[in-house]
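# step 3/5: fold
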Amino acid sequence: MIRCTVFASLFVIVVSPIKAHAQPGHYDLGQKLRAFELAWEQNRDPAARRRALPVLKTVVPLLFAGQNPAAGRAFDQPRFLLRRAEEPTAE
């Protein structure tokens, strides 16, 4: 009896379709993180790194809150701040 129950439950698990839930935006976030890491490694100026650090600290809470677009912007802004002191324009 136990074998029939185990076999039946395995059959249901194997035969039933499993939905894969996509994680939209995670690939883009990974690309933005990678671009930021490259900019961080290329720019060794301590002043530029100090400018970028406060904005970078906001990324983790945004990721935990599930706010992927805001987290993407939070990755882009410190990358631009590593290049120049002024904020990037909307263009």
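# step 4/5: annotate
Residues 24-83 form one domain.
# step 5/5: archive (pending)
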